[in-house]
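User: Assemble these into one structure.

Assistant: Restating your components, then the assembled model:
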Amino acid sequence: MTDGIVLAYLGAALSIGLAGSGSAIGVGIAGTTGTGIMTEDPSKFGLVLLLQALPGTQGIYGLLVGFLVLTRIGIFAGVPAQLTIDQGWQILYSCLPIAIAGFFSGIYQGKTSAGSIGLISRRPEETGKAVVMPAMVETYAVLALLGSILLLNGVVI
Amino acid sequence: MAISKINKFHIFAHLSIKEQLLKELQKLGCAEIMHIGRKTAFHDWENVNDISHNTSTELNKVKFCIDLLSSYQEKGEKGLKSLFSSKEKVCYEKLVELSKNLDYDKLYQQCKEFEDELNQLKLKENKLNAVQEELQDWQELDLDLSTMNQSSYIRYLLGKIPKNNYDHFISEISKKISNNFIQLLGEGKSEAKIVIICLKKDIEKMTEVAQQHQVEVYKYNHPFSGTPGQILKEISKNKKEISEKRTQIELELKNIFKKNKEIYKIFDYLSINKEKEEATNFLKKSKNTFVIKGWIKKKDISYLEKMLNEKFKAYEVHFTEPEESEQVPVSLDNHKLVQPFEVITELYSLPNYSEMDPTPILSVFYFIFFGLCLSDVGYGAVLAILCYLAIKKLALEGSAKKFFTLLYYCGIAGILGGIIVGSWFGDILSYLPSPLGGVRYFLIDKLSLFNPTDNPLPLLILSIALGIIQVYTGIILKFLDNLNKGKLADGIMDQISWLLFLTGIIMVLVQNMMAPFFGKMAWILLISGIIILVTTQGRASKNIIMRIGGGILSLYDITGYFSDVLSYSRLFALGLATGIIATMFNMLANMVNMPYIGIFLTLLILLIGHVFNLLISGLSAFIHDARLQYVEFFTKFYKAGGISFKPFGLKTTYTKVIDKE
């Protein structure tokens, strides 16, 4: 094991952990509103679940980047790459976009989802629009994912 | 044409055939009846207000019966089976006959009585529960609670005292009140239960001391008499009686339900009637005739004429083109292949009657984008097969069928997308035993065009290029729309200018790869675009400086186009995500290394993982694809705000009305 690999591990850990936390908070926020709505109308369960699941994607993106890092440094193959400190930093930085944007967009997407849940409780016919609103926030998580993937792809090992 | 041509119609006939005519119109189900407005012809005719029976109330009664009874139906009739069984088919005449035979008013009374009784029982039970809970604490007490305060000489006081205060309380009492008896009934964590007996005259003093020591006095005021133990026994006996009674009522309700299955049909029959009555309100009448005004699709006119001709003798019908100022209802009418994509348009909003329907063009983009987002052969196939089965087996109709057909197409798109990026449930093919290596070689290396995990750029460029194509399409559609409305100048100033400008920028960006002549062309386009924009975009204001200023400011919109186009990079990111998550699960499953049960665990991980990924990726693909259409594409040209065409027909909830059995 070299020093660089420690940094790469940190990167993977941050992207999985932070993006996952963001999603957890977001899903939590949406879920609290959802349960409130369902006390009045339990039949909305399906829709509420759908909207609650929307902020969950950041966690998956984070896991995805973490997984890419681990594959890249050969953890799964059983032969960890000999990384220099520089390469380690590069990998760590590549993980930051999804770690940071995943964390914050997860939370805000959760808030938007909560708003959308409120919308469908009063106007069920507007489901389409209610589902698109949180997706606007997710755009930035997708872009961060893209950024992380491209950066990671640029690291020469 | 993508939006159905709609005509206005007026039917005049003698009042005596009003009911008959409405009934036939409803059965035909292709005309929307509308209100005859104030400023139109016949506005001075009378309203038709001859609704004698109260269908709404009846409908509510039947709904009440259905709600109550259906919650007591036998198990097995509920749930999956009823969800997946198609609606029962009934003919109209049968419904009429049924509604005459079934005395639903009586049924309602019966149900109402049972429901009242159930509520009473519930109330009683709640009361009993409350008493039970209160007395739980005082079980040790061996005194008749009802006689507590009836003795002429002594008084009881039941209470809970904080343990810390207990000793002080005892000493205080013995100091202040001479004749007393205090018994400790039991101790909790922080409190002690005590019963105090004192003389009647001392009770006030006693209460005061108790209050000072934070004694929580328990007052019993329930109709039961006896010691707490006796009362608790009686309560549980009562509760048993209640639950027996309830089971009896439930059994009875189940029986009623079994005997009255037709109640669903009655509900449908009444809803049909209700709709007819509501339509009646839209009619106007003179002394002997009445008039119906409404909308009908042009292609359905012949059906209406045929029906009138066959069933009635004396009537008069007129068809006219809608006037421009009128808000005409919209019904989309597309080719069978495009039709499912109307779901996406409708989710946003229907187009105005005078505008164009974006669905045909949207469908192509939606299909391609979904394919790139899902981009896995396995998931696409699963989605397509499930949806195909759903459509065939469940005999879906209307909007549900449309939606599942859309998903079916999306599944096919996913398969195609998967082939070009070489993703089959992620990388599951690489786990194939070596003799089948040829299959893998053919499926992945031969068929796939991209390998996004190793070299992401080509697919990313493809995504962006598709984005540019869609944005261009949007601008061109707006230009054509302007052209159609005879606003060629606007079209050139607002759309062609941007097309020149954007094309110029793209060409400048790629000029290094082209001949020098190409670069010169690029600059010419770019600059001519800028000139048109700067000189025309401020044309709304009168001041010349403001005009130029507005024109220059409008160049700032380029950032909008830039972010629109970049937004399409999500196609690549989402597609890649699907493949990588699938690969991740494959790898996890492969890591399981246990004898005997290992293979089951592997299969379990694969099953759960891939179902999860299919759900998440499918949902993302659906939503993000729709978002691209709404935010990036529709904003360029689309004018929404149409109201949907809702023909007057036989709308039912539980059954399907057919012509003949």
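The interface with chain B takes residues 50, 53-54, 56-57, 60-61, 63-64, 67-68, 76, 127-129, 131-132, 135-136, 138-139, 142-143, 145-146, 149-150, 153 of chain A (CB under 8 Å).
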